[in-house]
Design a protein that fits this description.
By secondary structure, this protein is an all-beta fold. The protein is built from no helices and 30 strands.
Length: 409
């Protein structure tokens, strides 16, 4: 049984010079577009009508609860929060998105992304309901319309809520348009790109902002549309290597999803530098993922290498328990829509992640001699990297000096 202790934050005084063999490299471009909902302006309009779906395709049938559609072609390239997508999914719980389908009925605007939430709640498609879509117009001004006919879950009655989402080609505008509907339970409305990057709408006031609202019950007036207009993505400039010297996690342009478990530390790899990043597996219950994701960058060419420094010690409970934390490196060639596992580093006694052995307490701070450099070749075309920390309630992992370089001949 692991006994918790309180960690005292302190600055390492070690400043030992560590000499590394130099590599001739060509550094990747460091000015890229980073997805964020701040590129949208929000407005409301009235007097709208739902599009007439004269030739729709059904993707969720009547009587369906908590079952999302498969990924379906949009019909054109749509840019959501700075990332291009060509497929979408939708589910009966009043939510649609891009990437891997999900259809959780417990709504929380920060827990599903990248998503559009016209009325995310515990819903189903009723005795005569559906989710369907239709593509209207011609290039380059096509509109994908997704329509819901749903009811609060889960009585065997006809649907009582009807609404649509419109995605417009070229302008990348998003509109949520409401038809007739009965009062809801506690819905989330808006768009989300990550757990901390979203626009949440209050249906009682039609106001929107960055404060999560997950208890909407007021049905918007018939003909109301919530409009999210896309503007040119804000350039996000990041430099490599990422040495965490800025004193914050995540560093600019990068993303994390567990801010209380992923923090900045004042010590650095090999005792050289002014910062590193901690993955707090010691306090993360088994099964928790601590995700650190790069911005989208210029696709890699042949001979491109990812390198980083890390320090980790396993947890020894004195009773033979196994706490095999892992660091899984995954890569994407489509800006983070899909990822492919590249390599897994294990943190058990003989694992390749382990630099500090097995200890009975919290691993803090690592000695300068307990760091190692990991290097791995990236697949051609990689344009995003995901450091997936998979906790098994073990011990602390520290990361520093993340770099992506093209090795010279």
């Amino acid at each position: 049984m692991k006994t918790k202790i309180t960690k005292t934050k302190k600055q390492s005084g070690i400043m030992m010079q560590w000499l590394l063999s130099a590599l001739l490299v060509v550094t990747l471009s460091a000015s890229h577009v980073y997805g964020q909902t701040s590129i949208y302006t929000y407005s409301t309009t009235a007097g709208n009508s739902l599009m007439t779906m004269n030739s729709p395709t059904n993707i969720v049938t009547s009587g369906t609860d908590d079952a999302a559609s498969v990924l379906t072609n949009i019909g054109f390239t749509f840019n959501f929060a700075g990332t291009d997508y060509t497929q979408f999914w939708a589910g009966p719980n009043g939510i649609m998105g891009f990437g891997a389908p999900t259809n959780a009925y417990l709504n929380n605007i920060g827990n599903a992304s990248p998503t559009i939430m016209p009325w995310w709640d515990d819903l189903y498609t009723a005795t005569n309901g559906y989710v369907e879509y239709q593509l209207f117009g011609t290039a380059p001004n096509r509109i994908l319309v997704v329509e819901w006919a749903v009811d609060n879950c889960c009585s065997a009655v006809p649907f009582d809520k009807n609404f649509q989402v419109w995605l417009t080609e070229t302008s990348n505008q998003i509109q949520i348009v409401y038809g007739t509907g009965a009062a809801g339970n506690s819905s989330s409305i808006g768009i989300a790109n990550s757990a901390s990057d979203f626009i949440s709408v209050n249906s009682a006031t039609n106001a929107a902002g960055a404060t999560a609202i997950n208890s909407n019950s007021t049905w918007p007036a018939v003909g109301t549309a919530y409009v999210f207009d896309w503007s040119t993505p804000i350039p996000c400039v990041f430099t490599l290597p990422e040495d965490f010297s800025g004193g914050v996690v995540p560093p600019g342009c990068w993303a994390i999803d567990q801010p209380t478990l992923m923090t900045w530390q004042s010590f650095s790899a090999f005792g050289v530098g002014t910062g590193s990043m901690e993955f707090d597996f010691y306090d993360a219950v088994a099964g928790t993922n601590l995700n650190f994701t790069s911005p989208t960058f210029t696709p890699t060419v042949s001979g491109t290498q990812l390198s980083f420094d890390e320090a980790y010690a396993g947890y020894d409970d004195g009773a033979g328990g196994v706490y095999n934390d892992q660091l899984i490196i995954q890569t994407s060639t489509d800006g983070g829509v899909t990822y492919t596992p590249l390599i897994t580093y294990d943190g058990d006694a003989t694992g390749s992640l382990n630099t500090g052995g097995m200890i009975a307490g919290m691993y803090y701070p690592p000695a300068s001699s307990e760091w190692q450099t990991k290097s791995i070749m990236l697949p051609i075309g990689t344009n995003r990297v995901w450091f997936q920390g998979a906790s098994q309630f073990g011990n602390e992992l520290y990361l520093d000096n993340v770099n992506i370089v093209v090795l010279s001949d």
